[in-house]
């Protein structure tokens, strides 16, 4: 019989973390959300016609749903499927819907009402915390989310060093989020493959 | 005398702890049910080896295996039995303790 090592134990722990959160590690499922955020950034910018931008946003959102369903089928064909334990993540869901999402929304509202000098100071920070919590609650690993969170938190201070206006800053945050998110979900996919295939 | 973490590893339940079977059981512990394709990917085993390990785990009462057809395509799904889940959870608690001890020992 083959012996088992501490490294085998570590790998088994990683496999368990991925299996427990398999849906969230299938990064390419969510890749279309990146372009949606980028389009949302353009809507928030002053350089794009608003009606055109809103049309683009709706088209991007519909495309995101179609792409997600298609990529989900491809993942099932390549990796198989798991059925999650019912109610296993009830606490995570409650925290997400009752605390994290409302806090993210409220921070955007508060920034738009009160922070004319630093237009995404609070929301950059709160969204960064949201990303860190997302990473932790879905199996850890994926350090790229920490990089993205640091970028978002740092964005809040950008107006102190530049001439970017309030409305531009919201657009910049959405663009950074869209590009960063697209990169992050591709890296999710890479890391999931490395864990699943024992790299 | 306190045993080293490596001595403790040598003394664990071998039906559960064999590397391929531990990978299968670890994956099953984190879900209600997994299909054969998923277990193939996550363990890196051949179809024959995976079938053989699943049979051993089923015979040991740790795993329940269901087979059927979706149209003409055969499917196999596996899940931990209640007893199997309790045994694997207990085993993991031991492993986590040993892992913590190994980190301090390094």
What descriptors fit this protein?
heterodimer, A: 199 residues, mainly alpha, 9 helices, B: 106 residues, alpha+beta, three-stranded antiparallel beta sheet
Number of helices of chain B: 6
| Largest sheet properties of chain A | none
Name the CATH architecture of chain B. Orthogonal Bundle
Percentage of residues in helical conformation of chain B = 55-70%
Q: Strand pairing plus helix content of chain B: what structural class?
A: alpha+beta
Could you characterize what this model shows?
The complex is a heterodimer of chains A (199) and B (106). Chain A is mainly α and 199 residues long. Chain A has one domain (6-196). Chain A is 75% helix and 1% strand. Chain A has 9 helices and 1 strand; from the N terminus they run ααααβααααα. In chain A, α3 runs antiparallel to α4 (50-79) and α3 runs antiparallel to α9 (166-196). Chain B has 106 residues and is α+β, with helices and mostly antiparallel strands. Helix content of chain B is 62%, strand content 18%. Chain B has 6 helices and 3 strands. In chain B, strands 1-3-2 form a 3-stranded antiparallel β-sheet. The chains are: A mainly alpha (199), B alpha+beta (106). At the A-B interface, α1 and β1 of A face α3, β1, α4 and α6 of B.
Describe the protein's topology:
The complex is a heterodimer of chains A (199) and B (106).
Chain A: H1 6-20, H2 22-25, H3 33-44, H4 50-79, E1 82-83, H5 90-114, H6 121-137, H7 144-155, H8 158-161, H9 166-196
Helix pairs in contact in A: 3-4, 3-9, 5-6, 6-7, 7-9
Chain B: H1 5-10, H2 14-17, H3 19-29, E1 33-35, H4 36-43, H5 47-59, E2 63-70, E3 73-80, H6 82-105
Antiparallel strand pairs in B: 1-3, 2-3
């Amino acid at each position: 019989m083959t012996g088992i090592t501490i490294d085998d134990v570590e790998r088994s722990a990683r496999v368990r973390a991925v299996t427990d959160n398999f849906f969230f590690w299938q990064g390419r499922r969510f890749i279309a959300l990146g372009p949606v955020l980028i389009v949302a950034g353009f809507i928030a910018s002053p350089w794009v016609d608003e009606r055109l931008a809103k049309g683009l946003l709706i088209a991007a959102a519909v495309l995101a749903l179609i792409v997600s369903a298609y990529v989900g089928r491809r993942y099932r064909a390549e990796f198989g499927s798991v059925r999650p334990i019912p109610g296993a993540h009830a606490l995570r869901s409650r925290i997400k819907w009752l605390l994290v999402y409302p806090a993210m929304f409220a921070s955007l509202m508060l920034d738009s009402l009160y922070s004319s000098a630093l237009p995404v100071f609070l929301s950059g920070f709160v969204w960064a915390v949201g990303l860190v919590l997302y990473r932790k609650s879905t199996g850890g690993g994926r350090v790229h989310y920490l990089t993205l969170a640091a970028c978002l938190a740092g964005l809040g201070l950008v107006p102190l060093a530049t001439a970017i206006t309030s409305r531009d800053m919201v657009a910049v945050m959405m663009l950074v989020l869209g590009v960063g998110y697209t990169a992050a979900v591709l890296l999710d996919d890479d890391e999931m493959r490395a864990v699943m295939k024992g790299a | 005398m306190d045993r080293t973490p490596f001595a403790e590893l040598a003394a664990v339940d071998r039906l559960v702890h064999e590397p391929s079977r531990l990978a299968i059981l670890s994956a099953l512990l984190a879900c209600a049910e997994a299909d054969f394709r998923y277990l193939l990917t996550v363990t890196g085993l051949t179809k024959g080896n995976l079938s053989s390990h699943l049979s051993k785990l089923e015979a040991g009462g740790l795993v329940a295996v269901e087979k059927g057809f979706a149209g003409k395509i055969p499917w196999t799904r596996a899940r931990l039995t209640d007893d199997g889940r309790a045994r694997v959870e207990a085993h993991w608690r031991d492993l986590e303790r040993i892992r913590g001890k190994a980190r301090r020992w390094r």
